[in-house]
Amino acid sequence: LKLAFDPAANEAFWSAIRTIPGFPVDDEIRLRKMIFESDAIFRLPSLLRDDFHGSGERLLMVMDATPMRRGSADLKPLVLKLLRQAGLEVEPVVLQPDGSGQVHTTLAHIETVKTRLSNDALVLSVGSGVVTDITKHACYLYESENAVKIPYVVYQTANSVSAYTSNWAPVFVNGIKRSLPSRYPDMLVCDLETLRDAPREMTLAGAGDMLAIYVSLLDWYLAHRLGMDSSYSGLAQALVGPLLEILQEYAEAILHPTLDGMAILAKLITLGGLAMSLTHATTPMSGYEHVISHILDLINEKQHQPLTQHGLQVALSTIIGVEVYQTFLREFIPENVSIEACYPSADKMRNRILKELAQIDPSGAAGEECWTEYAMKLEKWHANRAELMGFLADWPDIQRKLLSMTCSAGKLARLLKKLGAPVKFDQLNPPLVAWQVKYAFMNAPLMRKRFTLGDLLLFTNWDREALWEHAWGKTQGTH
Ligand SMILES: [Zn+2]
Predict the structure, then answer these.
(1) Cα 159 to ligand 1 centroid, rounded to whole Å
(2) How far apart are the CA of 56 and the centre of ligand 1, in A?
């Protein structure tokens, strides 16, 4: 088993994927070089100098204060030393954690980095998802405001999320995580020893985040067939290929990390990031399971708890989502849908959202933020009544297609076990309990404008309480 498309091939990679239907042939794609190599760290100075000669007068290195290891060395001081030994002047920019002890992707941090930028800057981020997102988005905003281009190089320190090659940035806006359009890096550097020595939890999270496709790609197709999303194509699916089978094959090399295992995972994550960038949407990699995860983050944030490792939380939300899909695909009967009852009024939904969100944010700010987005979805849903009729008529075809895209919850759980990852919410750090996950499951549809299975269940008045009991019992119970 190998990747259908290998991003390490660079030129050949780009020309191969250009032929896939859905590829945005008119896009300017700045990401030209992706390196997945043993000892890539020692090439970093020459990569920076050769590729950005003349443009980078000031080299800024953005990182957080977390110590990282590479073999017996301290990673960040090692990078600094290598760059300085090569005669590059480096200005370190260190992001400080908030009260929870973590750095989050907030507008305040983005602003901190942005104020350090100038037209002659060359920017290098050394970190995982959050540091990358903050730096990427600071560069993006600076470029938009000043109508210039500044080169940005990502040194990926963990196989933790698909943020590195995505031109989106998930940012906390009024306490709610939103995906904002951002930019590609110009170069991605994966030093396999750095990835191997990253905390195991982060590596597992990267694999876990990718599993989302067994829900998110279905949600995307569902939204497409209901007239709720016009961006659908087969590009994302083609890029990630037989993900589950590849992860199964490399499970051992990820659990006891080898350089080969780290390279394959880094490439899969890269492909996931590109799937989002190239379709101009995070939708292929982020459906119902991600909204559940975002609500769990919101709950932790409001309780001033540290956030659970994103990808581990997503993997478990995916297991629930997959079970819900299996039930839906088995039990949905188009003839039983009462069309008239599928269209709640704006007033009714606004009240419901404000009331539900007040449970976790009594200030009302989160509720208002959610309603702003939800209102757009509801309006579109009302306007697309004819599409629902077509959907019901075509159900056997749609059902077949969706069944071919998902897998069983048991298969995902077995893979996680093989990887040594948590399979239950109470094994996460911090642990999550049933009421929190249930709250997220029930209210996820209320949070974003993106349409998922959660919305269809809500609009068609599915017995979601019973569905929850079933999915929780089957995936998290002791039997
Ligand atoms: Zn994710």
Answers:
(1) 12
(2) 32
pTM: 0.92
CA of 314 to the centre of ligand 1 (A): 7
Taking the centre of ligand 1 as the mean of its atom positions, its distance from the CA of residue 162, in whole angstroms, is: 7
d(CA 373, CA 288): 15
Structural tokens at position 35: 């390196």
The separation between CA 171 and the C-alpha centre of its own chain, rounded to angstroms, equals 12
Tell me how far the alpha carbon of residue 81 lies from the centroid of ligand 1, in angstroms.
Answer: 33
Partners of residue 106 on adjacent β-strands: 172
Q: Are strands 33-37 and 187-191 parallel, antiparallel or unpaired?
A: parallel
In 10 A of CB 471, how many CB atoms?
24
> Whose CA is closest to 226, among 402, 91, 5?
402
- List, for residues 177-236, the tens digit of each pLDDT value: 788 999 999 999 999 999 999 999 999 999 999 999 999 999 999 999 999 999 999 999
Where are the strands (E) in 157-247, listed by range?
168-173, 176-181, 187-191
Residue 286: DSSP 8-state:
-
Residues with Cβ within 8 Å of 133's Cβ and at least 6 positions away in sequence, in order, are 105, 163, 169, 170, 171, 182
State in Å: Cα 205 to ligand 1 middle. 9
Query: Ligand 1 centroid vs 285 CA: distance in angstroms?
Result: 7
Q: How far is the CA of 374 from the centre of ligand 1 (A)?
A: 21
Question: Side by side, which strands form the sheet with 187-191?
Answer: 33-37, 187-191, 152-156, 121-127, 58-64, 90-95
| Side-chain-facing half-sphere of 432: CA atoms under 13 Å | 33
Query: How many A from CA of 237 to the centre of ligand 1?
Result: 16
Q: Could you read off the pLDDT of 6-23 as tens digits, one per residue?
A: 999 999 999 999 999 999
Residue 282 in contact with residue 402, Cβ under 8 Å?
A: no
Distance 315 CA to ligand 1 centre (A): 9
CA 294, CA 434: separation in Å to the nearest integer? Answer: 16
- Tell me the CA–centroid distance for residue 170 and ligand 1, in Å: 9
Tokens linked to 262: 């780290």
Element holding 299 (H helix, E strand): helix 288-302
First to last CA, the chain: 33
